[in-house]
Amino acid sequence: MSFLQPQALQGILNVTVESLAGHCGLSNDQSNHDIEDSIRVARLKQQLGILQSRPRAASDKIYYEFAANHLPALMNTYRQKSTAANFAMTMLNVVSHTAYFIRFQRSVAGSDLASLLASRIANAEADPDVEVIGEMCQFLSTLFVLQGATSVNEADRAKLVPKLRRWNRAYTGYLASDTSERCLGALTGDFMFQQMSRSIKTMLEQPLDQCGANCNRRVRSNASELLQCSRCKTAVYCGVPHQKQAWATHKALCFPPTF
């Protein structure tokens, strides 16, 4: 049995924005650029597992800062890959709840992500393992909530729907079954999925569309657009008083984005 040296163990436990970027090949450290994708995925998931065991406030601070700093480069990395599931997809999925991701997927650079992922899943020749299927479909279902499924072309749809149905039946009791069913709901126009989708979409988009002081206003009292946080561009307010009121909470997740 082999044991990690203390320095190596500390490196795994010390999860930072920089360490996650390194596992995604986004750092300036040249030694990170020649690592095999399978090793990169394993190391990334190891650190994400540690991060997910920490309090939500601590983990979200890292997720939000990573998204603010690295989303455009991460998306470029994903486009350069040919597979649906890889380290870039894993990280995109993990930060998909952040306001920075919601804003990014509304931009030209991220607006085709649902159709891109759907096409890659549809055209993959072999099935990945059940854990990866669950992860892929979880991310795709989130993208369908945010971007809809109408951008998936008919050829991809014809391949994807039977594949999702097969996974849904084969993996009962696993995340893969639940998430493939959600994707099916989006592609087939299922009424229950549409109802759920609208609620989730409103919740995810709330930081960008409603006053961040929980007053739920979508316009200012004079009917003009809400004020946007000039630093992060991912929070809006109905006026300066509410912006000041919300700052104590907002400041932990306020980072200047690179996009």
Structural write-up:
Helix 3 (37-52) runs parallel beside helix 5 (87-94) and helix 8 packs parallel to helix 10 (175-188). With 259 residues, the protein is mainly α. It contains 12 helices and 2 strands, in the order H-H-H-H-H-H-H-H-H-H-H-E-E-H. Strand 1 (227-228) and strand 2 form a beta hairpin. Helix content is 63%, strand content 2%.
Key phrases:
single chain, 259 residues, mainly alpha, two-stranded antiparallel sheet, 12 helices, 2 strands
Morphology: globular
Largest sheet: 2 strands, antiparallel
Q: Structural class given helices, strands, pairing?
A: mainly alpha
Strand order of the largest sheet: 1-2
**What is the count of β-strands?**
2
The oligomeric status of these chains comes to: single chain
- H and E order: HHHHHHHHHHHEEH
Number of helices: 12
Quote the average pLDDT: 94
Rounded to an integer in angstroms, the radius of gyration calculated over CA atoms is 20 Å
The share of residues in helices is 55-70%
